[in-house]
Design goal:
About 80% of the residues lie in helices and about 0% in strands. The protein is mostly helical. It is a multi-pass membrane protein.
């Protein structure tokens, strides 16, 4: 039973990293397919398409940050598994688990939807390359929700009573 709290906290970290990374890979993959189609016809549009393709990747980075901060909170880099006194309570583990969920869920869905907007931006670049900035701005608007998820997860991780 003493491992349950620590296990829940680690599961939260794994979900933040895994789901955000999954969403990013889906979004980047969709945008990459669209970009490859445009670049195959017009190679000079590569950089404009690449910028749009890269934007959905940030959610994976945000999930990694939340996972890393969770491991720091758990003192994982100092051998917490070996020290039986370092395990956290079930309520503490649940608190950390739920603190990671905004980034896990927000990262997954915002990256996928950002990828869809990036695909539309790439279509814009294909027809009107001079309007690429508008495509980047529209794609970046979806990023706002990933940033909010990151912020709430970080703030919730460092509520003093957990752990």
């Amino acid at each position: 039973m003493e491992l349950l709290g620590t296990g829940l906290a680690l599961l939260g970290a794994a979900l933040a990293v895994g789901l955000s990374g999954t969403g990013s890979s889906i979004g980047v993959g969709m945008a990459g397919q669209a970009a490859a189609g445009v670049v195959s016809e017009e190679p000079d549009k590569f950089m404009k398409c690449l910028i749009l393709q890269l934007l959905p990747a940030t959610q994976g980075i945000y999930g990694f940050i939340v996972g890393f901060l969770t491991l720091i909170k758990l003192n994982a880099f100092n051998g917490f598994i070996m020290d039986s006194g370092a395990f956290i309570s079930v309520s503490g583990g649940l608190g950390i688990f739920f603190a990671c969920l905004p980034m896990a869920i927000g990262g997954l869905f915002s990256a996928i939807h950002q990828g869809k907007v990036a695909v539309a931006g790439i279509a814009l670049v294909a027809k009107r390359p001079e309007e690429s900035t508008k495509g980047v701005l529209m794609t970046a608007m979806v990023e706002t929700y990933a940033l909010l998820a990151l912020l709430i997860s970080i703030l919730a991780l460092f509520i003093p009573d957990w752990a």
